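In this section we walk through a basic example: taking a raw amino acid sequence and producing a predicted 3D structure, encoded as discrete structure tokens. The instruction is simple. Fold the sequence below.
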Amino acid sequence: MKEQWRLLQTGFNTAFSNMAVDRAILVVNSEGKVPPTVRFYGWKPPAISIGYFQSLTDEINLDACKKLGVDYVRRITGGGAVFHDKELTYSIVISETHPAIPKNILKSYGRICNALIQGLTHLGISSTYSPINDILVNGKKISGNAQTRKERTVLQHGTILLDVDVDTMFSLLKVPNEKIKDKLIQDVKQRVTSLHYVLGKKIRFEEVAEALKVGFEEEFHVELIQGILTKEEKTLAAQFEKECFSTTHWNHRR
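The resulting token sequence is shown next.
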């Protein structure tokens, strides 16, 4: 009998809501009230998330975000600034003591990323894990991932790029030296890829989610059962969104 984990497909939401839900699941999971949970979601409107330790004003052109209607939010995980637009984002929340998750952080990144790699094979794509936290296709980045551990619980979330607009991304992010901006843009275009580019056609969010579901089931030898947020998770998510992720205090704290 395979272990059953919960699958949440929460659709497209604001940056503040997305981060609040991830944190709410982490809290409730740490209390042992819900099983290991895999979630797939998107961003509406597009957004930039910055790592927990970054400075918002150093990383993001706030005027450009306002002009283009792009949200911005601070994650509870580390890493760099990420432009979320045409992508599928996943998160996994699981106890640090669960036998499926290596205690070593690098190995745990690799194990979870393997689930994504398995999923991509079901789309006809061969990919590789590049430590610490990237997945590459033909040597180019198609997925970035970030992890935190709180209350003996692991939260890892990351992206699979359905398509990528490097020019828009650089119009929203601050570049230390404007003189080398064009060179940086060309460099990123050489280093980053997307499902659209690799497959030569557009692919639906739902199709990618289904492939990744199978990937997680195969990697962890579990069955993902479609579920919903509990009442407690919904309450906590609303609280976290209002009191934390949508506030100037949280987003501008560094």
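Looking at the output, two observations stand out. The mean pLDDT is 96. Residues 37 and 226 are 10 Å apart (CA to CA). In the next section we compare this with other chains.
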